[in-house]
Amino acid sequence: MESGKIEKWHKKEGDKIKAGEVLFEVMTDKVTIEVESYNSGILRKILRVEGEEVPVTEVVAYIGEEDEEIPQYELKKEAEETAGKVKEVSEILKEKVKISPIARKLAEKSNLDITKITGTGPRGRILREDVEKYIKSAEEERVEKRVRISPLARKTAKEIGIDYKSEKIVGSGPGGRIVKEDIIAYSKGKEKAGKEVVAAPSAEITIKSSNPLEGIRKVIAERMSYSRSNIPHLVLNAKAGATQLIALREKFKEKILEKYGIKITYTDFILKSTAVALRENLEVNSTFSDGNYIIYDDVNVGVAVSLEGGLIVPIIFNCDKLKITDIAKKKN
To answer: Which residues form the Lipoyl-binding domain (predicted)?
Structure first.
């Protein structure tokens, strides 16, 4: 992830913030992430507003004490003070730049800063060709900025040889932004139209053996591949007190074992908690298919179970409506 779009601010300037509270939401290609505050204090200044695309390392707000100075004001003031000096130096440099008359005329016509142009003539003299090359490069850069495309989509386009700057690709992301799926769909469309896609030559690899997958191993491979390709994967770490959970299990585990012959585990409680949380937040219980955001009413939870022959992921249907004992039975 190189950048993200600020989707929503949950706090406003002047609000008191506690460590762990959600400050804002960031939208990426795959998922919307809630960004929490690491510190407590006052939200002194918001630098980037909703809808803006921001690099991951850029400062978007300042949290501090009520009377604490905000660093960006210092930087802005310093930048304003040096702006005039930079302009003066730039004018002096322009006078000393070696450039042919026709190249200078072309540069002035295009309102270019000749100090930024690299000359290829004798002793670094700027020629007409240098100015034309600079103009072409600047135009390509402007086109690059005009095309709204996600970093992942840009990378995908490069890998499969799609020139997204000149090709007419319709973006399906927010505000017409081109996302990875648009690049893939466009590439498949070109293949169907009969345009040959030439793969880059690769070194020969010696294969020792090739054996077809069968039975449980085939199912595991197919399900895991589908999950990885179609479901956004992210890691979220949070601390939660488990004192009451431990006490609850200790209180009932022997009674349940005696009555039902089932050994309940912490996993059973976690499955139940996850299912209830999904029921309360159905927007997470969803998939993305053919440009549609599909929310499901049934809460079915998959749980990885290790067997002697491999790993399987049984589905516990309507998990939010089941008792702990029923979940334990179905899991086992």
So the answer is: 1-64
The residue that leads in pLDDT, 145 or 42, is 42
Indicate the angle between helix axes 243-260 and 266-280, nearest 10 degrees.
Answer: 110
Q: Which residues pair with 9 in a beta bridge?
A: 24
Which tokens belong to 209? 């053996």
Distance (Å, rounded) from C-alpha 265 to C-alpha 307?
A: 17
Q: How far apart are CA 191 and CA 86, in angstroms?
A: 52
- Nearest CA to 197 out of 159, 166, 165, 168 is that of 159
Domains of the chain (ranges; CATH) run 3-71 (2.40.50.100), 97-146 (4.10.320.10), 151-192 (4.10.320.10), 243-331 (3.30.559.10)
The residue assigned the tokens 């979940």 is: 327
Q: pTM above the 0.90 mark?
A: no
| Rounded (10°) angle between helices 266-280 and 324-331 | 110
Write out pLDDT tens, residues 108-160. 888 888 877 888 888 788 898 998 888 888 776 665 555 677 778 888 888 88
